[in-house]
């Protein structure tokens, strides 16, 4: 159990994104009055990322409307626009890129992930959407282009699909290039990925599968994407969404265990007085099929990590809330929602709706235990299905209870 914060404690949070900001705000809300310093590499105050590829790129939300803070809390100390470059774990001292240091009795790593880049010569002509400034740069590249201009989107995963949807909404002509034979195959498995692969055509968006990128060059104003097999695709604007990498390089040599993220225990502790939360944390997730080490890049998981860590550091005797991962994506005119943390190899069974109508609820199971629920255009059913993931539930029991039908 974590030691509760006392009057002489001070907290340094590295990473001023959702998890870092939510932790600071929740510690204050729970009565911790000691010093809290947030260190953030971005100069913007904390903001919400999911709308970047949805409403912002679709043109219905301004960047200024993404702020997470309702009002500025003057009791927090901010070091924005500067990266942390090292951590002295024993001294709980964070060394900043400008040479300053910030020391606390507790340090929280909430440095998230960054977009993975293609290893190609013309990478500087590609766009990746992770930060506010990425959207600003993309918008200036789109500005003045004919509304029907092609935009190549490399990667048909969640980010690529949302970018294509939003740009199509504005009249651009996205061409989604997916390396696998259907998008999201390695996330949601062959059945669900196969059903979702029908959505782009229904939305009038071109999806080309089996298109692995071999190289990217430029030819005048055009970006030329060479595909494995010899074909090429040209477009003046190219956006890539090919995954993300945890921001842990600054912790190399610190002594913390780094293995596809910062490895933490069930109290989010990476070392005495040092915790990690959010996208960057590799934590033991107590799921319905047992405990597994997971690093999950979901908004709600980052938020829940922060709330839980604040609870453990202020009222450790309070019962822990079970974490049920939740993710949503708005793409090709449909809302996809996933509860739990299913594997692509899990067994899938449709329990409501019909994939042929592009509306369904399906259960994932492993060894007859439900591991996840995926819903397409069925938000109410998904919300009702949550209880079957709060405690281990057999497939038979879930089918008998059918909470999604209520
Ligand atoms: C375009 C987009 C759309 C998304 N859509 C969805 C969605 O629909 N549904 C969903 O569930 N999730 C979505 N997500 C994921 C969700 O936004 C993340 O899970 C969430 O932001 C994670 O919060 P975090 O605080 O862990 O990391 P982040 O929000 O990435 O914040 C980490 C911060 O740490 C900073 N940082 C990194 N290294 C350092 C350093 N060395 N020193 C100081 N600061 C540093 C970073 O600059 C960043 O500001 C989306 C993400 C993106 C980018």
Describe this structure in words.
This protein has three domains: 11-114 and 245-314, FAD/NAD(P)-binding domain (3-Layer(bba) Sandwich); 119-242, 3-Layer(bba) Sandwich (FAD/NAD(P)-binding domain); 342-405, no CATH class. It contains ten helices and 27 strands. The protein has helices spanning 18-29, 55-58, 132-142, 158-169, 185-196, 199-202, 299-314, 379-385, 387-390, 395-401; strands at residues 11-14, 36-40, 76-80, 84-88, 93-96, 101-103, 106-109, 113-115, 126-127, 150-154, 173-177, 206-208, 213-219, 222-227, 232-235, 237-240, 244-246, 262-263, 269-271, 274-276, 281-287, 290-294, 326-331, 334-340, 347-354, 359-366, 369-376. The strands form seven sheets. It has a six-stranded mixed sheet, covered by helices on one side. A five-stranded parallel sheet has the order 9-16-10-11-12, covered by helices on one side. A hairpin with a 2-residue loop joins strand 19 (269-271) and strand 20 (274-276). The two termini are 39 Å apart. The mean pLDDT is 97. Bound molecules: flavin-adenine dinucleotide. Flavin-adenine dinucleotide (FAD) binds next to helix 1, strand 2, helix 7 and strand 23.
